[in-house]
Design goal:
Layout: E1 9-14, E2 20-25, E3 28-29, E4 34-40, H1 44-51, E5 54-59, E6 72-81, H2 85-98, H3 100-109, E7 118-125
Antiparallel strand pairs: 1-2, 1-5, 3-4, 4-7, 5-6, 6-7
Length: about 130
Amino acid sequence: MTIQDERYVSLSTWTKNGNRKRTPVWIASLSDGQVGFTTGKKTWKVRRIQRNPSVELQSCDYKGELAKESKVFSGSAKVVDLDEKEYELIKKAIRKKYGIQDLLISFFGQFSKKYGDGCAVVISLKKDKFV
């Protein structure tokens, strides 16, 4: 199984002072060693990625607990706005992989603007770390 096939993935980003912050995300495979996920534009992970695009991915459970002996995949992330065509590609890939779960989260998420409008994050995995 590759990192793209995992149901939940721990995304590591870094704060201004260099502390690692992990959060579980759903990812979907794109092309050329890229993966993506959707999120709110005002989330802390997006703010950290905008400041420092270096990220790491690692298998985890839905609570973010790392899988034992799981590999770490390094990459570079970029934020994609709603009006960019990459956003729709990522949204479709997430919908295909997660189905009804994604539909439910999208439905209930429309009632909350706590994290602002949506966006997507595209991660280009480093080739030497790509499995």
